[in-house]
Amino acid sequence: PLTLQVKNKAPAEVQITAEQLLREAKERELELLPPPPQQKITDVEELNDYKLRKRKTFEDNIRKNRTVISNWIKYAQWEESLKEIQRARSIYERALDVDYRNVTLWLKYAEMEMKNRQVNHARNIWDRAITTLPRVNQFWYKYTYMEEMLGNVAGSRQVFERWMEWQPEEQAWHSYINFELRYKEVDRAPSNYIYHCFFNIAPLVIVHPDVKNWIKYARFEEKHSYFAHARKVYERAVEFFGEEHMDEHLYVAFAKFEENQKEFERVRVIYKYALDRIPKQEAQNLFKNYTIFEKKFGDRRGIEDIIVSKRRFQYEEEVKANPHNYDAWFDYLRLVESDADAETVREVYERAIANVPPIQEKRHWKRYIYLWINYALYEELEAKASKRTRQVYQACLELIPHKKFTFAKMWLLYAQFEIRQKNLPLARRALGTSIGKCPKNKLFKGYIELELQLREFDRCRKLYEKFLEFAPENCTSWIKFAELETILGDIDRARAIYELAIGQPRLDMPEVLWKSYIDFEIEQEEYEKTRNLYRRLLQRTQHVKVWISFAQFELSARREGSLSRCRQIYEEANKAMRSCEEKEERVMLLESWRNFEEEFGTDVTKERIDKLMPEKIKKRRKLQAEDGSDAGWEEYYDYIFPEDTANQPNLKLLAMAKLWKKQQQESEAAEADPDKDVDESES
User: Fold this and answer.
1) Which family is it part of (predicted)?
2) Predicted pLDDT at 558
3) Residue 623 falls within a domain, yes or no?
4) Residue 481 CA to chain centroid, in angstroms?
5) Residues 334-355: what's their mean pLDDT?
6) Is 88 helix (H, G, I), strand (E, B) or coil?
7) How far apart are CA 169 and CA 133, in angstroms?
8) Average pLDDT for 245-260
């Protein structure tokens, strides 16, 4: 057999893909076919034949797929075009038997009757449609519109009333209202807003209880000058929604209505009522309108109320975001106290103190406890309610975990309050309870101060004894106890208290206690006992200030031999401090001694003390950082005393080093400028 051979096997320049072939085939399907030739019918037989063929085609299509409603509609419309109305009705009825829920089918059927002016047939179809499918609003709209176009207002109203029985959507109600208004039936229109027993119509504001519908109803009444009715509508709306479902738009509309009626006080009451009950984050528009109203019609007081309300809103947001932000609570309470009544202030205080710190640590309670203090002070000073003040103090003291920590301030404030109420036993009982539960220095001091003011000295002695049993290391308590006995004239008891105090093994400020004891003996002019005290103190410490104070005491005694005793003390101190490592303290002693000799000494003694004064020299020492690395050098001053013979060779070596350094500097300067030496020799 003959085979074809392809000579050029290279790819063609234009490549044709399968996708392109399919796309071109699809496009060619859509190309318009030439219209069929026009057929001219010349007699009745041809017309009947044409009708028969078309009807057979439509019937075949319907028989193939009865559920395709478009085939039925085309069939009926073709019959309608031939003015075969009866046949078209028959086709629509057959189609409705197949699918009576098809909305388009009902619409086409009714439109056919209306186009052919078959009004009763159209009414019959609409009645059947709204009875079969009452929730299809389009049927009702078409039906009412047809009746209104025919001028049958009563029939249209009757259809609307039948529609309203099904409680349709809001737009249906508004269509009915607009229908009544078009025919000037103002008295009938409100019956679609409110319940009308005669018509048995479910009202719009009950079927659709939205705020906007109540507002539309009220504005309808206002528009037709029924102002009293409009106010009643707003009042009924407020009552209907209550406090659980409050909406700012209702109150804004109500306030604007009253503003238009020049009822400014009613406007103000409406705004305040709403602002107090609606959550703050949902009342932004309400607050804005209230501000505008006060700026237009309010006085200075009203504007201030607006500002206060705004600040209250801000504080409410802060404390809601963080209930344990006590600083925000303080600011909020300060604002409320300045402008609100007592009940409101108490409510805010109760909300504030309810936020107890979650951790039982005193640092978390320090700010919180001032809420209770401010609450109690407010009840006592502002509200003048002593009974509530006592309850506040007692509740606070019960709340504090005294086993872990306490607040002496609260106990003392409670006791002072009871004293102001002339109830001394309760005050003593409170302070006694505080000392028994949680003893603290501040509680003892406050209780003792109270008894001192009452001149109950025996109670003060007992309290001091308990205080010193609790804190024997507290030097201030010992001193105050001794001072009390001194004031009462019991010197022996005061001295015994001092002896007990200095005999304690541990003291927080022993130098203050010894000084107070010494001053006490000096006041009693017991100089020998004072000297013994100094000697006993020097056995415990060799501090330079003790020696200087001892010497100044001997000098201030102004008795025979006081100067010699003072000089002797300085000499003893100098001998005792030769071994002291702190050379500054010895220098301080020598300077005090020199000042004494300059005022009371002779030339010999002055010369002697001058010889004892040290020489001040500058030294350098190496510094080290915390990690042990080299941190450089530091200059400091040191004191060299004349009698320190061990340091003499070092001083001599230091002097020789300084002389050598000076000679080196002079020789370097001469070598650096030889011409200068020649010029000087020539000159």
Assistant:
1) Belongs to the crooked-neck family.
2) 67
3) yes
4) 50
5) 85
6) helix
7) 15
8) 81
Q: How far is residue 66's CA from residue 69's CA, in Å, rounded to a whole number?
A: 7
Closest CA to 324 of 378, 362, 371, 279: 371
Model confidence pLDDT, tens digit, residues 315-327 = 777 888 888 888 8
**List of long-range contacts for 516-523, beta carbons under 8 Å, 24+ apart:** 516/479, 516/482, 517/482, 518/549, 518/553, 520/482, 520/486, 520/494, 520/495, 522/553
d(CA 235, CA 245): 15
Q: List CB contacts of 556: < 8 A, sequence separation 6 or more.
A: none
| 535 assigned to some structural domain | no
pLDDT, one tens digit per residue, over 137-166 is 999 999 999 988 988 888 888 998 888 888
627, 632, 637, 642: CA torsion to nearest 10: 90
Are 287 and 313 in contact by the 8 Å Cβ rule? The answer is yes
Tokens of 485: 């006995």
Residue 100 falls within a domain, yes or no? yes
Query: DSSP secondary structure string, 561-599?
Result: THHHHHHHHHHHHHHHTTT-S-HHHHHHHHHHHHHHHHH
Check pLDDT > 60 for residue 681.
no
DSSP state of 636: E
Spell out the long-range contacts of 587-591 with Cβ–Cβ below 8 A and sequence spacing 24 or more: 587/614, 587/639, 588/544, 588/548, 589/544, 589/547, 589/548, 590/614
Check residue 488 and report its DSSP letter: T
Q: Mean pLDDT check: name the lowest of 4-8, 203-207, 418-422, 553-557.
A: 203-207
Report pLDDT for 200.
28
Domain hosting 257: range is: 222-298
Pairwise CA distance, residues 214 & 233, whole Å: 7
Measured CA to CA, the distance from residue 390 to residue 37 in angstroms comes to 112
- Same domain as 282, residue 256: yes
Residue 536 pLDDT grade (very low, low, confident, very high; cuts 50, 70, 90): confident
| Residue-wise DSSP of 374-427 | HHHHIIIIIS--HHHHHHHHHHHHHHS-TTT---HHHHHHHHHHHHHTT-HHHH
User: In this structure, are residues 357 and 368 in contact, taking their beta carbons and an 8 Å threshold?
Assistant: yes
- With a CB cutoff of 8 Å and minimum separation 6, the contacts of 613 are 590, 594
pLDDT at 302: 60
pTM equals: 0.51
In the DSSP assignment, the letter for residue 622 is: E
Taking only the tens place, the pLDDT of each residue in 380-392 is 888 888 899 999 9
Are residues 227 and 203 both part of a single domain? no
Q: 658 lies in a domain?
A: no
Q: What is the total count of domains within the chain?
A: 4
Which stretch of DSSP H or E encloses residue 279? Answer: none
Six-digit token string for 525: 């002019």
What is the tens place of the pLDDT at every residue in 43-85? Answer: 888 888 888 988 999 999 999 888 888 999 999 999 999 888 9
What is the rounded distance in angstroms from the CA atom of residue 457 to the CA atom of residue 484? 9
Co-location of 569 and 644 in the same domain: yes
Euclidean distance between CA atoms 286 and 265, whole angstroms: 17
